[in-house]
TrEMBL record, chains A, B, C, D:
Protein name: Glutaminase
Provenance organism: Kushneria konosiri
Annotated residues for binding of substrate: S61, N111, E155, N162, Y186, Y238, V256
Lineage of the organism: Bacteria, Pseudomonadati, Pseudomonadota, Gammaproteobacteria, Oceanospirillales
Gene transcribed to yield this protein: glsA
GO molecular function: glutaminase activity
InterPro entries, per database record: Beta-lactam/transpept-like, Glutaminase
Length: 307, 307, 307, 307
């Protein structure tokens, strides 16, 4: 497996240089686009890694899964009164659909949905930023996980579109806390910094029936775990979820920091990272790595070969 | 397994009477809504059935999978130059997205996409209606499969919205044959009549690596098979694909005749049928049956339990 | 006045060469873009003309006013049950708004609205093409007015988008006749050929309380006349009606053949023609001519100076 | 004229009780809907009034004309780099169009456009709230005009949708000042309180070539005056501008406080007020009054009779 990972990274290295790193804030625009790392953690405990797998990066929208987990763990099904779990068929930050559907976001992985989740968690926790950071520390088994203040503050400075979405939802009665306060929490979650190795630990519960592999901590029930995987499979890669299902065939979640996590239920959590993005906002090289991995091991959940 | 199917049907029978049968054409509006059947075909050849599993019904949009298979088998990847494989996030027959995206349908399972597929097949086959009927006969192992002329002609009479979509795509250069001729082919495909037992045979290839279980006929390659399952998983149930993934967790395809097919890759093809539809146009009781089945056997592709 | 017209044409001639003639059908694409003509007809009978004012051109959407007149004259207010008289705020041929507003076009001067008007007239007249041609002959006082068959047939060949709109309206129950037949009528109306001098006669009724200046034929009541002027003022220049009101300040109607008619209520009908179009589909030089005319004579209906 | 006004009010009084007063903030919801007043001011100085013409009411969107005047008077044509003067064809507060057109509002009389105007004025004036109040005091010749603090604060509490629009424009670079500060200014402008008699004085410049009738103060040039009238004619009554042109035929501007001002260029400024609104957000009885007035005097700018 180790050899396979090394070999795949070698295969895709010529693609480094294609795509563009996220440039809407300076802190992300300055990242070296030639970095590339991958980690895989088996449910048997075996950890494989290659390339820059220990380098921390801005997890950005990958944090949306942790936020969803937090909201499910204290709210359960009632959560879905305020947002859906349907794919959006739109750019991740479009307001058109949000207005047409009266302030109810389609799913928790588009920005509007993640803001509703942040609003729900804001109502629940006295210190939402710290409680999320602590959850991620436990789930990644890394007490050094921090949120990058420079990134969080820069995102807040450039909050206009997210603020527009939050206020639009508030106008429909689907946002309960102070918009500015929730945005601050949200940007701190997005600014969490973790490595591929951290994230395969953090996502091991999705491959492991809802329990963290390293601590056996109960994160979600088996049925909730399966449901989170389902939402990742239909909505986890912005407006490229269908393509990811077609090419890779695994539940996944990406971030504009260039990370993509994916799950082989029952077997593996995977994280690949390379900062330059394709036109849909997903790691260009990361997509290529996961497609090769899926082809070579036959791991698609839509394939009989993996059973 | 037989007992389980009987038991689930008994559990959901109280729901019969809820929902509404499709009413846009008289031939569908007159169907008795209290019918309910299920069939399952294992890749080991075991066939289970319960209720009205031998009663033929109008397969409607389930035919879109057969049409896609036909287009893939002669066109391969070039197909995707003319349409996508992304979920639509819209009602199945919306024109808004189609105009915004310049006549390129999001996927082959919304009407616009199925019309492009029909246009592609129209260019390829001298007798598109017969060639499709014959394919379905072979795949279902039933030489008595026919297209219901009354239904097909009634659909043609009520073709206005589909005609609007076809002409809109033609205006963008993405429709090559005579619109009226393609619509006739398309409606004949939709009007094919088959039972649950027919359809589990017809979809066995998707559970069986691309080969028909009864004939071992090669329909698609393993990778193509996995890809069709992926598209079904993200786009197979109109604007309820996310909910189906969340509640059931299997690739599936529904039709307004009340049928839903689903696939457990490597294991089973399933077909449930009950004519009354929910607000999203999917069989109301059929959804309930598949959810119970998924819960009780743990068959979601997003769950480690099924491995 | 004659000198003024000549002087304005001289002023704008340097603009000839800017813009682009309509190119969606060959018959329009071949028109020499350097032509420029203007005619004005006073309600006192005085006729002024300059440049290519006697050259016939394809009136295209200017015909929508004649069609509306025909529909009002036999249908009266009931007409407005099937379409509105609100500006559209959209490109003239968008389907988005039409779908959102359930097949009811916003006004009679966008294509969808004109198609509903054509459908209404199709129900009323045994020979809709001839009855329109005869009306325009009477109104222009020119028995030689004809519809250009080559243009009409070419438009029919390229009917896809208009067909999409008609079928979409039919799907909402707002289109009653055979789509193909109505489209043929519609394209024959658009293909009518007339000169600036013809058209100032044809539009004299709008400056003259509803009566043709040359024949005193009653076309509309004074109130209906004022209402048609109002619709032209808010919706007559595609998605540039606001700009036309702002810059020119007169009720007007344009066509992609490069003609623009305008009305000074109580005083003048005006027609300017130059084939090259601006980005909004209106005659680029024609707009400049009318703006200069409005500025130099102070004829805006929104100005006290003209009273 | 006095008798005519009285007679028209008597005619429409049976309509009082239809429609609904604006209810999005308590301060407006509590207004007695049975009030009705009208005032007319001739350019010869003659003032006519009937009913509750001296009762102050919340002018709301009528203030958008004063704000536009302020922006034109110091900015001139450069203003139109940031917004358009086209009708919107949408609800007054829709975000769809704003997103599609990349944060550039269609005109200054929809909320998004008025917010851009407020942003422009915020950049220009040290005390935007006071400078606007003082302008309105001068233009209405009433030093007692004030902004209702309760209304302004209540609007600010319910600012969510306007905030969403402002932030959306900021995300496109078309909003330069602090959103919260501009919203406060904007709501204070909307909360200005004036009577019909105040407003006919305040709008006399639009009937009088740009000069206040009572003071001869130069507000706008004649051409700018005509242009403001043109924008009012195409965009002044929310999504009912076309209907207002069709039924009344005068430049006008309405507010959700139930006021409507209208202008007969060269002759009269008119203000009618009755709080209950129709489905488009315009005074139900006010519309009826103006239609009757237009019919009985023949004042449409689209009619030759008034010349």
């Amino acid at each position: 497996m180790q050899a396979l990972l090394e070999s795949i990274l070698d295969d895709v290295r010529p693609l480094l240089g294609q795509g563009h790193v996220a440039s809407y804030i300076p802190a992300l625009a300055d990242v070296d686009p030639h970095q590339l790392g991958i980690a895989m953690l088996g449910t048997d405990g075996a950890l494989y890694q290659a390339g820059d797998a220990d380098t921390p990066f801005s997890i950005q929208s990958i944090s949306k899964v942790f936020s969803l987990v937090q909201a499910i763990s204290h709210g359960g099904e009632s959560l879905w009164e305020r947002l859906g779990h349907e794919p959006s068929g739109q750019a991740f930050n479009s307001l058109v659909q949000l207005e047409f559907e009266k302030g109810r976001p389609r799913n928790p992985f588009i920005n509007a949905g993640a803001l509703v989740i942040a609003d729900i968690n804001q109502s629940r926790y006295a210190a939402p930023i710290l409680s999320m950071r602590d959850l991620v520390r436990r789930m990644t088994n890394n007490v050094h996980i921090i949120s990058d203040r420079v990134v969080a503050e820069s995102e807040y400075q450039h909050r206009a579109r997210n603020a527009a979405m939050a206020y639009l939802m508030q106008s429909f009665g689907n946002f309960h806390n102070d918009v500015e306060a929730v945005l601050k929490s949200y940007f701190h979650h997005c600014a969490l910094t973790a490595s591929c190795v951290d994230l395969v630990r953090g996502f091991s519960f999705l491959a492991n029936g809802g329990r963290c592999l390293h601590s056996d901590e109960h994160i979600l029930t088996p049925r909730q775990t399966q449901q989170v995987n389902a939402i990742m499979a239909t909505s986890g890669l912005y407006d490229e979820a269908g393509n990811f299902a077609y090419r890779v065939g695994l539940p996944g979640k990406s971030g504009v920091g260039g990370g993509i996590v994916a799950v082989v239920p029952g077997r593996y959590s995977i994280c690949v990272w390379s900062p330059a993005l394709n036109a849909s906002g997903n790691s260009l090289v990361g997509m290529a790595v996961l497609e090769k991995l899926s082809e070579q091991i036959g791991w698609s959940v839509f394939s009989p070969l993996s059973y």
